[in-house]
Amino acid sequence: MSTEQKIDIHVQELEEHPARLDIYLACQLPGLTRSRIQKLIDQGLVLLSGKPAKAGTRLRGGEKLTVTIPAEEPLELEPQAIPLKIVYEDDYLLVVDKPAGMVTHPGAGVKQGTLVNALLHHCRGTLSGISGVLRPGIVHRLDKDTSGLMVVAKEDRAFRGLAQQIHDRQARRTYLALVEGVMPEDSGCIEKPIGRHPVHRQQMAVVERGRHAVTRFTVLRRFAGCTLVSVELETGRTHQIRVHMASLGFPVVGDIVYNRKATGTLAKRHKLGLVGHALHATRLSFRHPVSGSLLEFEAPLPADFQRLLEALKEER
Predict the structure, then answer these.
(1) pTM for the complete prediction?
(2) ω before 52 within 30° of 0 (cis)?
(3) If pLDDT is split at 50, 70 and 90, which confidence band does 12 have?
(4) DSSP state of 43
(5) Which of 22, 42, 90, 143 is catalytic?
(6) Which of 30, 102, 112, 184 has the most crowded Cβ, counting Cβ within 10 A?
(7) What is the mean predicted confidence (pLDDT) over 246-272?
(8) Any catalytic annotation for residue 8?
């Protein structure tokens, strides 16, 4: 179980003046989500020159911040003996191959059957608590309908090291995606800001004042009506690949949220034999946060995705 932590931050000269406190902390503490930082601020656990700060406080450089991260609260979530496909494990972390259809962590209305429930049973209380009560050990997440590789931290030092690598773009994540439509370019870079959809708040969208997001893709194979691409993330925004590919007019096959074309319904997804949408986190590499050694992992396509590709080959 984690203990209370106090983090002192001396605000250096800023490239942009002024900078909002909550946004600045999100950059300085990549292991914490924006909502987690907001909660710490609301609880008076972020001090500016010794006094509780407000999220909208403008920093100009030279200030001293103290952030207190409370000790991990007892989890009320139920450990569940759900089978896990574990690719790697040691005393500090583990890498799992998450199936499509499994929610990463509990949320509104979902308290059981998640990856976190399975991890609580498997790790028996040895997960980092930095990311909050409902997300123990979760350094980065995959959407419910996305399959593939995730790294999970067992203790706080590992969590901080892994989160920093993801923030600094030192960890590499590669996905395979089957998108609807035949892409003319062999490769490309999508650099469009992503934020909350202005109307549908549960969705993300390319918006002018969104967060910086960069996705690189390479075409691997073209079929009749769709394209298999390899995708690398330079940033890690919510639903980034799905939003970026849809913004080009080539949405992920079977994506019922962002695909407005032929395969964007549950009925069509099921007809194609897919459990989730056709997006798989196939490769993951990072430095071990304790030993410093390079770790590289690869997860083959799940059976439903592979069967669909084989059927498409026959249609060429």
Answers:
(1) 0.77
(2) no
(3) confident
(4) T
(5) 143
(6) 102
(7) 96
(8) no
